[in-house]
Design brief:
The structure is a single chain. By secondary structure, this protein is mostly beta strands. It is about 5% helix and about 50% strand. The chain has 6 domains: about 1-20 and about 45-160, Immunoglobulins (Immunoglobulin-like); about 165-260, Immunoglobulin-like; about 265-350, Sandwich (Immunoglobulin-like), CATH 2.60.40.10; about 355-460, Immunoglobulins (Immunoglobulin-like); about 465-565, Immunoglobulin-like (Sandwich), CATH 2.60.40.10; about 570-670, Immunoglobulins (Immunoglobulin-like), CATH 2.60.40.10. It contains 3 helices and 56 strands. The strands form 14 sheets. It has a 5-stranded antiparallel beta sheet with strand order 1-7-8-4-2, with helices on one face. Strands 3-10-9-5-6 form a 5-stranded mixed beta sheet. A 5-stranded mixed beta sheet has the order 29-36-35-31-32, with no helix packed on it. About 30% of the residues are buried. The model is unreliable at about 1-35, about 65-75 and about 200-205 (pLDDT under 50).
Length: about 700
């Protein structure tokens, strides 16, 4: 007894050590709750893959010996069989004993099944049962999900005398391979044999009347398995399985094999010349098969739609479908399904109703803007799907395309742009974006049933108003204050084409004396010139030339820069003074030539007193004066030389550019420093003029 308990404990521990189930602690009884699905439940599915299974093993029951008791005997040690698999969706498990469900072979209280779930579609199932002598047999675990199944089986041998569990009739299908297992228990077993009872059937090769079944042939016995490859009607009958132990003890159990004949359908077909409005009948008959038989029909894999008004009549061995007033919707694959207690059989035939073409999307006249592509769709339904093509009328001779009856194919039914789906054929024509795309196009649909379907459409290309781009120099116009300026633009587009000008968002009125607008029109568009008579600073800024017609609008921006003389320098002050030069500092208001490269500065210098004084113009080399600059004015300084020592002067500044000179600044008055003597005094003479004075004289 201790040995049996230790062996059972070893198997339980060994099952836990072979990889584990990765479970999260949740479990459910077999046939009960559904295991939770993995977090990636929306990922791609795959069938179960078993990665942990149990092995064949031999156990001694509790007490060390066993009688011929059944699986429900009390006092046995507990054994655990375990399987683990990974799949998506997570698999469900089923346990079998000798190819039969557990509940048909074992007492419900003698076993339990639990399942656990882990991450990534992991699942495990564990079967626990008492190791009673009658519980031995071929155990199998099966994992399945919608994508497939995986199965593993191995024997559980429990020491004890041979016994065979009762097995109901084995129902086999004629023409299919089958295996019947002898549900025996007990261990060790020295021999297993099969024999057929009663008279031999005509097809039971390998088993005579009351004779043993051999190991070779169509009907063969290998161990506990009786194989029929394939099963035939003559194999029906009773068979006996005998299990023998080494000590001579035996157990025998009869098993009845029933052979059932599946239905076999006689092939049928529909006529290939059926047209819309005609009637047809089709008969599905059965050549052979056990009765009763049940008929059903499918269209394209689904039950017959009630709105098609198809009449069905079924008798014992055939079913009749009747169609009246065929339409395109009746076309499809019709399947006759016949079932009986053995199996089900299917046969499918295709019904094709020929239907002349009809517009699914009738083409229409189209108008497209110049530069855009026109897309014309033409779709026709029919069966077989029609060949849909686009053609274009082309000119022949001197009459022009509008008087021609010659057409060229631009999109054929086999070209890119043509497609067919669900009996509807579509041809899509995409024209170019130029005026050459305009013309007459024809859509033609033909499937050989009835006359072809034809529709002519006109494609018109409209040119929206478009202002022509100009060079950068033409978009930036400069004029000297008081001089004339001209701003020009050209536009194209369908007539009527309107052009007008705006200045800073306000429309320019042509009756103003300040502006004159000239226009010239031609077949392709118009040109407009805005003349500014005498440019003033108020005329500077953004101008827009607008063009518009009923198909669009466009504009272009042109900037006018009115150039004027710089403002007068101000805030004159000395930045340094010597005997013969001074440095003058000044400021000039920003925004009107305040330091541009073409601004020149001139100093008007005059000796004081000013009466009859001559004014000297001195060109200055101006340098930026950061200390004298501000946000409103720029600071400059320059050195003025050639002045006399100790002399008084008046200085005014003027600024000039290519547009003219500024007014003179306010005068800056200053006195030069004296200059040190250049040599010693000459001709020095001294004489006394009194007792207390001496008169000294000299020359330079």
């Amino acid at each position: 007894m201790a040995r049996a308990i230790l062996l059972a404990l070893f198997l339980l521990l060994r099952g836990g050590a072979r990889g584990g189930d990765g479970g999260d602690g949740h479990s459910a009884r077999a046939g009960g709750a559904t295991l939770p699905q993995p977090a990636d439940a929306d990922g791609p599915g795959f069938p179960p893959r078993l990665h942990y299974t149990f092995i064949e093993q031999a156990l001694r029951p509790a007490g060390g010996a066993g009688g011929a008791g059944g699986a429900g005997g009390a006092g046995g040690a507990e054994v655990s069989l375990r399987c683990a698999a990974r799949a998506h969706p997570r698999p469900r498990f089923t346990w079998l004993l000798d190819d039969q469900p557990l509940h048909q072979q074992l007492e419900p209280h003698s076993y339990s099944v639990s399942e656990s779930a882990g991450a990534g579609g992991e699942a495990a199932s564990e079967l626990r049962l008492r190791a009673a002598p009658g519980a031995g047999g071929l155990y199998a675990c099966r994992a399945d999900n919608p994508h497939g199944a995986a199965q593993h089986q191995a024997r559980l041998n429990i020491y004890g005398p041979p016994s065979i569990r009762a097995l109901g009739a084995a129902r086999l299908v004629a023409g299919q391979d089958a295996t019947v297992l002898c549900p025996y228990a007990g261990y060790p077993i020295s021999a297993i044999s099969w024999r057929r009872l009663g008279a031999a059937g005509a097809g039971a090769a390998g088993a005579g009347a009351g004779g043993a079944v051999g190991a070779e042939g169509r009907v063969a016995a290998r161990g506990a398995a009786l194989r029929l490859r394939p099963a035939r009607a003559g194999d029906a009958g009773r068979y006996a399985c005998t299990v023998t132990a080494p000590d001579g003890a035996t157990a025998t159990r009869d098993i009845e094999i029933q052979i059932r004949n599946p239905p076999k359908i006689s092939p049928f077909m529909f006529s290939t010349e059926l047209t819309e409005g005609s009637s047809v009948q089709v008969l599905c008959g059965v050549i052979s098969g056990d009765k009763p038989m049940y008929f059903s029909w499918l269209k394209d894999g689904a039950p017959l739609p009630s709105n098609l008004q198809i009449e069905e009549k079924s008798l014992n061995e055939f079913s009749l479908l009747m169609f009246s007033g065929l339409t395109a919707r009746h076309s499809g694959a019709y399947t006759c399904r016949v079932s009986n207690h053995a199996a089900a059989a299917n046969y499918t035939a295709t019904l094709t109703v020929k239907v002349p073409p009809a517009w699914a999307a009738e083409p229409r006249d189209a108008a497209v803007l110049l530069g855009a592509r026109a897309r014309l769709a033409c779709a026709a339904a029919g069966h077989p799907p029609p060949d849909v093509a686009w053609l274009r009328r082309v000119a022949m001779g001197l009459g022009g395309a509008e008087h021609s009856d010659h057409w060229e194919v631009v999109v054929s039914g086999t070209a890119e742009g043509a497609s067919s789906a669900g009996g509807v054929a579509t041809a899509v024509l995409e024209t170019g974006g130029d005026r050459g795309a305009a013309g007459v196009y024809r859509c033609r649909a033909d499937n050989g049933v009835g006359p072809p379907l034809i529709k002519d459409v006109n494609v018109t290309v409209h040119a929206p108003a478009q202002v022509e781009a100009v060079a950068a120099a033409a978009r930036n116009v400069s004029a000297v204050r008081g001089a004339a300026a001209a701003l020009r633009c050209a536009a194209s587009g369908d007539a009527p084409l309107e052009l007008h000008w705006t200045h800073r968002g306000e429309r320019i009125q042509q009756d103003s004396y300040r502006w004159v607008v000239w226009e010239a029109r031609g077949a392709g568009g118009a040109r407009s010139t805005l003349h500014v008579r005498a440019a003033e600073p108020a005329d500077a800024g953004e101008y827009r030339c607008h063009a518009s017609n009923q198909f669009g609008r466009s504009d272009i921006i042109i900037y006018l820069n009115v150039e004027e003389p710089p403002p007068a320098p101000h805030a004159l002050r000395l930045g340094g003074v010597a005997a013969r030069w001074v440095r003058v500092r000044w400021r000039i208001v920003r925004g009107r030539g305040d330091g541009g490269r073409d601004v020149r500065y001139t100093a008007q210098v005059a000796l004081l007193p000013a009466r009859d004084a001559r004014v000297t113009n001195v060109t200055l080399h101006a340098e930026p004066d950061p200390d004298g600059s501000s946000a409103e004015a720029a600071g400059y300084s320059a050195r003025v030389g050639g002045l006399r020592p100790a002399a008084a002067y008046s200085l005014r500044l003027l600024a000039a550019n290519h547009a003219g000179a500024s007014p003179a600044s306010e005068p800056l008055l200053f006195t030069m420093l004296e200059e040190a003597p250049s040599g010693m005094p000459q001709n020095v003479h001294a004489r006394a003029t009194s007792d207390e004075e001496i008169l000294v004289s000299w020359s330079e």
